[in-house]
Amino acid sequence: MDTAGKVIKCKAAVAWEAGKPLSVEEVEVAPPKAHEVRVKIHATGVCHTDAHTLSGTDPEGVFPVILGHEGAGTVESVGEGVTKFKTGDTVILLYIPQCGECKFCKNPKTNLCQKIRVTQGQGLMPDQTSRFTCKGKPIFHFMGTSTFSEYTVVAEISLAKVDEKAPLDKVCLLGCGISTGYGAALNTAKVEAGSTCAVFGLGAVGLAAVMGCKAAGAARIIGVDINPERFKMAKTFGATDFVNPKEQSRAIQEVLAEMTNGGVDYSFECIGNVDVMRAALEACHKGWGTSVIIGVAGAGQEISTRPFQLVTGRTWKGTAFGGWKSVDSVPQLVDDYMNKKLKVDEFVTHTMPLAQVNEAFDLMHAGKSIRSVLIF
Questions:
Q1: Is 172 one of the catalytic residues?
Q2: Would you call 270 a catalytic residue per the annotation?
Q3: Active site residue 117
Q4: Of 176, 197, 213, 284, which residue is the catalytic one?
Q5: What CATH number should be reported for the domain whose range is 181-321?
Q6: Which residues fall in a coiled-coil region (predicted)?
Q7: Distance between CA 209 and CA 201 in Å, rounded?
Q8: Is 102 a known active-site residue?
């Protein structure tokens, strides 16, 4: 059946309002307009960022919305003017696009393409409308991707064409979590061989940061988490030491400074907790330590430390999508996975159908999953 140019009816998990479970509904997905692509989603990860928006603490959160941003699939049809994609192409969706034309894309120091940033933040396509309707109501897009739907429409700059042999139920995770943590170590911190690192929060992003530190040749990688079950897994990714802050009588930054003869060379905050962000900075070595913020904090929250921490040579940085320029880098990351240079399978702890999407969130909140993948 040729669906090009027609409205497609399919299943999607709709978030009708903040703080409520998702509801699997029949939605209508309009055909792609100029410079847009309609994608059949094969698999999507369930990420903390989805939960962050659903909770109502995301300042850009709008409802009703189709969440999901860690997806992979195949091109169903393309809109007018699209030349880089054709029906059947294997793709990963990108919440940070790469237009190649804006001043951000032209600057090698950043990956934060701004071409469609404003409309994406409003939950709309670049023409300020939505391609989704449900029960007669327009439904907002999420992060320019909306992967919790059997079909979605994205801007052509929000897609990367990848190896058609790649297993989509695994490489979908390269659309966010794994790439983010891995790149934070390699691109943002630029971890050096022989260095000492600390990773706060050993979920998918934290484990990927551990993997990045190991790939960079770090000599010591300390995993910090209040869930001791995470330590065994972190060891397989390259962690050498573990600290559970709940088992310490002193502040974690003091414990780490003592363990490392003055502090770590690099630290990574992979939680989104502003108090942990401070601890991660203060756990860094005087004179040269660098701390990278990866976790997304709630609306209105602020970070604090004494300026003296920075005056005495520590650096505080942040990263989004691990600093990777998305269209250029994601196909290469997929190739690295296919060539066994990058772990991906090990992150997937649960696989389930879309109907069990709420269970995936429950597992995440209970700390029982690293990544749940929804299969369509």
A1: no
A2: no
A3: yes
A4: 176
A5: 3.40.50.720
A6: none
A7: 10
A8: yes
User: Annotated catalytic residue: which of 38, 44, 47, 172?
Assistant: 47
d(CA 359, CA 37) in angstroms, rounded, equals 30
By the 8 A CB rule, do 149 and 138 touch? no
Which listed residue (44, 49, 180, 260) is catalytic? Answer: 49
**Per-residue pLDDT of the chain in tens (376 residues, 90 and over written 9):** 689 999 999 999 999 999 999 999 999 999 999 999 999 999 999 999 999 999 998 888 999 999 999 999 999 999 999 999 999 999 999 999 999 999 999 999 999 999 999 999 999 999 999 999 999 999 999 999 999 999 999 999 999 999 999 999 999 999 999 999 999 999 999 999 999 999 999 999 999 999 999 999 999 999 999 999 999 999 999 999 999 999 999 999 999 999 999 999 999 999 999 999 999 999 999 999 999 999 999 889 999 999 999 999 999 999 999 999 999 999 999 999 999 999 999 999 999 999 999 999 999 999 999 999 999 9
The catalytic residue among 10, 74, 102, 254 is 102
Among 74, 117, 315, 351, the active-site one is 117
Q: Is 47 a catalytic residue?
A: yes
Among 35, 38, 42, 48, which one carries the catalytic annotation?
Answer: 48
- Contact (Cβ atoms closer than 8 angstroms) between residue 292 and residue 78: no
**Token couple for 343:** 């772990």
Is 0.90 surpassed by the pTM of this model?
Answer: yes
